[in-house]
Amino acid sequence: MSTAAGSTNRSQNAAGVQAPPRLDLRAATGGGLFEYAPAPESVRPAIADRYGLFINGRFTDPTSSKRFTTINPATEATLSEVAEANEADVDAAVRAARDALPAWAGLPGKERGKFLYRIARRLQERARELAVLETMDGGKPIKESRDVDIPLAAAHFFHHAGWADKLQYAFPGREPRPVGVCGQIIPWNFPLLMAAWKIAPALACGNTVVLKPAETTPLTALRLAEICDEIGLPPGVVNIVTGAGATGAAIVNHPGIDKIAFTGSTEVGKIIAKAVAPTHKRLTLELGGKSANIIFEDASIDQAVEGIIEGIYFNQGHVCCAGSRLFVQESVLDRVIGKLKDRMSTLRVGDPLDKNTDVGAINSKAQLATIGKYLEIGSKEGAERHDCGTADLPGKGYFCRPCFFTGVQPSHTIAREEIFGPVLAVMSFRTPEEAISRANNTPYGLAAGVWTDKGSKIFDTARRLDAGVVWLNTYNKFDPTSPFGGFKESGFGREGGRHGLLAYLA
Ligand code: NAP
Ligand code: MG
Q: Which residues line ion ligand 2, judged by CB < 5 Å?
């Protein structure tokens, strides 16, 4: 911690008594509140030079011999070469899943549950290694992969292990049957967690799966494949095929698939919806968002600002439900902006493997360029940008200084389009009516946050917001018991809770 002396200022009150000196912490410490010594994570998981495809319980070479590299976005160093699955590989994976289906679906629920419990326990046992790997492959701060991603992934397996033998109680009067072979495609922002969200309910309900992780973050899904093997999961129940968009499309278009579960952008979601529409396949889509946080004048402002920070700068804003639009009641706008600036000046941006880092690396060069494009458009359209802190960003790797824009109009691009980066658009409102209509004025409907001290306002606002999840005096809190999913162009279907099981039952 820095011990530099702070600048002080004194003022006299009306009676001429001199007030005690006030320490200007920001000036004293060069902008930040204080500095921590580096605390780098010491574990380095073993990473193979090359990875194959996990098909029928074994790692196999891709038929085309094609591979692609996955890098560490914080250092730009190559981590591994990963197999690129083509249509023939996807076909082999679907066949393996089909062959494994009767025995897996026929197991008593309590036996299937035991496998899920074993996966959950193994995720916990290997949690530290998985957290470091997630951070290295994707760029998120270690404190998030350690405290959020990996524990929640294990929690999803535990939760669904418990459902496996209770499905007839979850849906009384109905004979629960699996849908069949499920094709699952996931994005790069929560790689292991999204795999858990998809695989755990599918397996609990007696389905078998073919899952494709995102091109930039395949390593933890491949570790999960290793874990499936370690715990003795029957071959073919879980198949993991790596590759880019074409591999995803091969899964979507394979006639042997009974259900597609997709999490990703609205753009790709629409392509998938069109491809699946004329087929027998079932479909769930978890897509993009432009979620609103609403601060009423009676809110606890400090608490709200903390939630806003968590809502947009958490995971570099690579969160589908990021609170990327902030609506503040006019009477408290200046206070909120002042406190937001103060709090942002304490955010640490940098090495994701440092345990003190709050904001890590942007997931890829392409995503950094996309964010940069939106920052330019924001300024060009007339909004004013406020950057967080002044400390230098690392010289290598893909980093973006968190920022927010004021003077934003609802028609501005940065108020309408998903940026998927640490960029917040701040707007104001006068009445609750105006807040709700402006928050709902978007094609998306994934999540929202409401900050107020008044219970009746909480319930009234939450009821009228078109969003799948509404957080009240908190933000970005997840739990496997709570269903998650969108309204409007944010998709359909729910993941988690009892509702999430429905997508995997015929
Ligand atoms: P994306 O480009 O849509 O990719 C998602 C996945 O689909 C990746 O595995 C991708 O492979 C694959 N893919 C790409 N083109 C495909 C095609 N034509 N057919 C089948 N699969 C295809 O999205 P992203 O950029 O990775 O992720 C960010 C987006 O995901 C954001 O819009 C975010 O809001 C959304 N998201 C939503 C949720 C939610 O729960 N609603 C959660 C997380 C993220 P490659 O990676 O190899 O291109
Ligand atoms: Mg990577």
A: 70, 137, 216
User: Is ligand 1 within 6 A of the CB of residue 418?
Assistant: yes
For residue range 90-112, list pLDDT tens digits in order: 999 999 999 999 999 999 999 99
What residues contact 377, with CB distance under 8 A and at least 6 apart?
413, 414
Residue of minimum CA distance from atom 16 in ligand 1: 245
**Range 85-94 burial, b when 16+ CB lie within 10 A, else e:** bbbebbbbbb
pTM: 0.93
Do the bridges between strand 447-451 and strand 469-472 make them parallel or antiparallel, or are there none, so unpaired? Answer: parallel
Ligand nearest to the CA of 288: 1
Q: Does residue 286 have an active-site annotation?
A: yes
C-alpha 71 to ligand 2 mean position (Å):
4
Q: How far is the CA of 10 from the centre of ligand 1 (A)?
A: 55
Kindly name the residue from 182, 205, 320, 388 that is annotated as catalytic: 320
> Taking the CA atoms of the chain, what radius of gyration do you get in angstroms?
24
Tokens of 106: 């026929």
> What pLDDT, on the 0 to 100 scale, is given for residue 388?
86
**Is 284 a pocket residue for ligand 1 (Cβ < 6 Å)?**
no
The string of DSSP letters for 184-238 reads EE--SSSHHHHHHHHHHHHHHTT-EEEEE--TT--HHHHHHHHHHHHTTPPTTSE
CB 312 within 8 A of CB 323: yes
Q: Which atom of ligand 1 is nearest to the CA of 213?
A: 9
User: Is residue 320 among the annotated active site residues?
Assistant: yes
Mean pLDDT score of the chain? 93
Among residues 285, 491, 364, the alpha carbon closest in space to that of 69 is found at 364
| Domains (range + CATH), the chain | 1-35 (no CATH), 42-287 (3.40.605.10), 292-477 (3.40.309.10)
* Residues sharing a CB contact under 8 Å with residue 211, sequence separation 6 or more, in sequence order: 183, 184, 185, 186, 195, 198, 199, 221, 238, 239, 240, 241
